[in-house]
Amino acid sequence: VLSYNSLELQLSKGFVILITTLTSCLISLTVLGNTFVILAFIVDKRLRNQSNFFLLNLSIADFILGTFAIPLYVPYLLTGKWLLGKFLCKLWLIVDYTMCTASAFNVALISWDRFLSVTQAVLYRSQQNRPCRTVIKMAAVWILSFLLYGPAIIFWDFVPSTEEIPENICVAGFYYTWYYLLTASAFDFVLPLISISFFNLSIYCNIKKRSRRKMQNSISLPPQKSRKEAKLCTIATNITLQSPQIDIQKKSFRRRINISCNQCFGIKSSSHNNKRSDRENNQVSDLSRDKKVAKSLSVLVCIFAICWAPYSFLMSIRAACHGYCIHIYWYDITFWLLWTNSAINPIIYPLCHKGFQKAFLNIVKYVSQHMLHNRIV
């Protein structure tokens, strides 16, 4: 018979103060950062494109974690007992598991969107005016996230089992079912990690290929088109001069024709060079933008792996050995590390985006002016 008594922690007063301080900081950062992202969408219409809507979806999931899931866990961690009843326990578990999974799926969706914008730019831009697809993708994230854990949390109590969870303990029924946890981890951690790693590697290879091509094209080549036009001009001049019907001096006529041709083709050559220069500048701008995308995605892969890997790894091991080989302290540390990802996400994505930076500054200015006005009044 399994025992859940190990879940009740005996904490010293100093440790309680430390945990309370750290968790309060984490909650504040999570709520504040994701609130700024959501407000930015409300105040700045220019941010409302497909790519940024996926950021909004991520921020909503992280915001709910910061306002509901994390605060309810703090007293449970400090006392070692769940005192809010069975219904709220189920609701908390569903929200927590669903939001964490949605956060991981949104990260994968954002990476996929960035991948398409870099490797299939023309097709990507043509689909920007199709909001239905964006809404479907966002809804799919929430539905799949709920289906992965929600039904199991609700109906696992009806599965015949020799273990009954005490009233003062709030854990999912599959808490020690290693094969279910291992399968779920494959979907909410392993697959997203593989996906974002693949997208990041593909973007890196694409940028490297384009950079190599840019280096090759930077070598100055003779303007073949201008040469052909010059030959045509000379031929036309010679043919005209050989015509016996024109009774004028050949030298003077040749001089006028040459001036005319040079002026004409000089304009054409200048126009051609300007177009070519604009095209090259656009390519350099796109390449620079895509390099920034690649850097942000590489940071994303590292942080996602650091925050998720320990929890997924220890959770499966703990379930396999029924909690006897992994101390509950280590499980709690990985749990909080997983939640830390929700506080970091607003820094990785929106704060690295110039549009969001401007929107955040406008929000801060408005709030500061409003507070100053209230003080004066």
TrEMBL record:
The UniProt entry lists membrane topology as:
Multi-pass membrane protein
Matching entries from Pfam families are given as: 7tm_1
Q: Which residues cross the membrane?
A: 15-42, 54-74, 94-115, 135-158, 178-205, 297-317
Q: Name one GO cellular component term.
A: plasma membrane
The terms under GO molecular function for this entry are: histamine receptor activity
Give start and end of each G-protein coupled receptors family 1 profile domain. Answer: 33-349
Signal peptide range: none
SMART domains in UniProt? 7TM_GPCR_Srsx
Q: Which CDD domains match?
A: 7tmA_Histamine_H3R_H4R
Q: Which InterPro entries match?
A: GPCR_Rhodpsn, GPCR_Rhodpsn_7TM, Histamine_H3_rcpt
Keywords of the record, alphabetical order, are: Cell membrane, G-protein coupled receptor, Membrane, Phosphoprotein, Receptor, Transducer, Transmembrane, Transmembrane helix
Question: Which top-rank group of organisms is this from?
Answer: Eukaryota
Compartmental location: Cell membrane
Q: Which family does it belong to?
A: Belongs to the G-protein coupled receptor 1 family.
Q: What is this protein called?
A: Histamine receptor H4 gene b2
Q: Which gene encodes it?
A: hrh4.b2
